[in-house]
Each structure stands twice: as C-alpha cells, then as structure tokens.
Write a structure and sequence with these properties.
Elements (H helix, E strand, L loop, with lengths): L3 E6 L9 H6 L2 E6 L2 H8 L6 E5 L17 H10 L4 E6 L4 H8 L6 E4 L4 H8 L1
Parallel strand pairs: 1-2, 1-3, 3-4, 4-5
Helix pairs in contact: 2-3
Length: about 120
C-alpha cells in the first residue's frame, strides 16, 4: 500500500502545525502557501487529503462568482483527483459561510479554529 499524501494549503496564521501528527500517521505532507502553487502541483501529484483554510470572499475580488479562497483550487481538484477528501478549517464567525462552499463541493469535514490534533486525527482515520 502506498503512502497517503496530504496537501496543506496554509493561508491563515491560525493554520495549525500538524506536521508531527501527519508523520505519526504515515502521511506525506506537502505544504503550500498559495493556491497557484497548490494547483500547479496538483497536476503532478494527486492528494488523498487536502487540509485548507477557509477565507470567505467578502471583498470585490470574488465578484459574487466565487464563495471563498478555495473555489478555483477545488474545481481543479475535481478534474485531477475527485476522490480527495477535503478538510476545511474556519474561524467561528465564518463557519456560517462554509455551507455555501459545501453546496458546490463535497467536504469531508469542517473544523473550527483552534484545531486540535485529536480532531484532525479523527478526520484522517
């Protein structure tokens, strides 16, 4: 059985450092600090899991077309790796907006910051 791969897309200072946990679980962690880099890498390697920060699109840059920072990446993910489990992390005030994303994409889990090792372990089991 090959090693599972997890993409960590880190766009918030609240994103937990769970590198040790991923190693303990035998999961290869590939980290990105931009969606562009994650999308580019997605074409080369398909992850089993994606752990990403949810940032709701309050500003004009989303122009009502996209819900949040993850839309473009998740559309690409459907094309390259539709079986990937998506774990989204959000602040308490933004959790109400995650439902809009869940209407567009199948989410494996939604976790509220701060995210504990125990909670993440349960989502990766």
């Amino acid at each position: 059985m090959s090693q599972k791969v997890l993409f960590s897309i880190i766009e918030s200072p609240l994103h937990p450092n769970l590198v040790d946990l991923y190693q303990q679980l035998g999961i290869e962690n590939v980290q990105f600090n931009s969606m562009r880099k994650a999308i580019s890498h997605l074409k080369k390697q398909q992850p089993d899991y994606v752990v990403a920060d949810f940032l709701y699109g309050y500003g004009n840059n989303y122009a009502g077309v996209n819900v949040c920072n993850l839309d473009v990446f998740l559309h690409s993910l459907q094309k390259y790796s539709s079986d990937t489990k998506i774990i989204v992390m959000a602040e308490k005030d933004e959790l109400k907006h995650v439902a809009k994303l869940a209407n567009l994409f199948k989410l494996h889990a939604v976790l509220q910051y701060p995210v504990s090792k125990k909670a993440m372990t349960e989502m990766l089991a």
